Amino acid sequence: MFNFIARSLRIKLLLVFVIMLLAFSSVHLVIRQYWTIPQLVALEVEKDKKDIYKLNSALLRVYNELEMLVYDNAVWDELYNVILTRDLDYLETNFFIPKSFVSLKINGMSFFDKNQMLIDELAIDQNNNPLSSSPFKSLPPSLKKNLLISKQEVINNGQQTLFKQGLITLNDRLILFVSGSVLPSSGVGDLAGTMLVWSYFDGKIAHQLSEITQTTITAAQADTFSASTPVIDFNQLDAQTHIRTKLSNIHVKFNDIFNKPALILSYPTPKRMFDDSPFEMSMVMALLMSLVVLLIIYFILTIMIIEPLNKLKATVREVMDRGNFQLTTNLERTDEIGRLALLIDVLFNKVHVQQHALKHNNRQLKRLSDTDPLTGIANRRAMMQVLEQLTPSAMPISVIMLDVDYFKKFNDSYGHQQGDLALKHVAKTLKHHTRRQNDVIARYGGEEFVVVLLNTCQSDARNMAYAIREAIEELAIEHKTSLISQFLTASIGVSCCDEFDNFSIETLFHQADSALYKAKEQGRNCVVDYNSEMHKHAV
Questions:
Q1: Is 452 left (phi over 0), alpha (psi -120 to 50) or beta?
Q2: Is 0.85 surpassed by the pTM of this model?
Q3: Using one digit for the tens of pLDDT, what is the confidence trace for 209-247?
Q4: 9, 11, 13, 20: which is closest to 290 by C-alpha?
Q5: Which of 4, 120, 426, 483 is 20 to 30 A away from residue 432, measured at CA?
Q6: What values do phi and psi take at 264, rounded to 5?
Q7: In 3-state terms, what secondary structure has residue 212?
């Protein structure tokens, strides 16, 4: 046999070619197995992490919606007095409405006094039938500390609005809750009590998460989940080097308020955008071409395979280093390497789209958290964020504080729906009279509004206040129970600061509030300028 090979050059060449093909095959497998596929897997892991962060953002949005519900009701003078007087009839009439619970996607609402004693509550089951009591009816002191707002916590927070939220298991049921301090409409004051809203973490919340993330989300309690099923701990997500398993779903664990496993959210594993098998068509094609083009094997290896792979590697490396998923491989080929490049481009594009969607969702969440849902103008928090970023170039700064006269009587006479409509008209009037881009209009709370005017002197702000007062009265919104007019009116206080060194948000708002109080003392439906009043007293 050896002599036969020694005498045959054809056999020697055939053996050389076989060895070269085997060597080439080995090199190709090594590059794919230890370079290309690991980098694609690394990109896939980053994409899966972004999907999980998107899932967490959706969960935070559910919390934020409940927090806005608590804020809109708990920071309100009328509810503040109701809690202090323990007016159960008012709570039954205005808050404990099962149909409203369905539309708000909650299962219960409870009110506690400042000593964390239950005042009243309403709870419904998954079929919207009232329950005899809620899981929060009898809470031990240890749970009250974690769920409710104490007087000392409000004092430590500067007597400002305070919220608590999270997951908790009560009566073997997983519950999502948000609680908030009941304070006056100004958002600052002594604690009257705690308002707590909650919902069973069941199919309706999973459906809500599915709508936000545009994928099918299922939820399960951690203690009922199979211990043998691989689960991703959200708190340790950044340290994860592998996300996917052989299972059809990805499972993510979230902890409760005691930092114990409570919730497992699952969603279908996204389709893999590349083939991770050791052998692929480009290798077979390369072997066939090597047999045909015997004399240019090196050229094929170098030009047709190695260089494109290096280019793919360089592109993937550049994307990983720069984090710019808009880059493309620029390989306009129709062979297997070209299709691999196309898959990589598709994967890059998918990650880029997910990044853009995540940023868009974050902007949407930011917009929702900064906008008053009734009037469509800024809320108090958004306004304070603007004021905290002011520079000397904004001086002088004027503040117009407006309060709708006898608005509680208006609501009692015409109903809350007409009351909400009236507030929308007032907000629209404010927008009509403040069209500059740097003017800030905000709903301060209840029927109270604030207009912040940058680069506006005292006289201009006062003139605008008069114009706003007249415009509101000219809306001719009937108010038969008003003590001063047959139409809806407003009292307005104005304050101004000329020098940045003397500027204080708290002082400016206190002055405007004092002027507003003075306007109410003078008979309402009028404008009082704090600076002018101070000048009168000085004279």
A1: beta
A2: no
A3: 999 999 999 999 998 888 889 999 999 999 988 888 888
A4: 20
A5: 483
A6: -115, 115
A7: helix
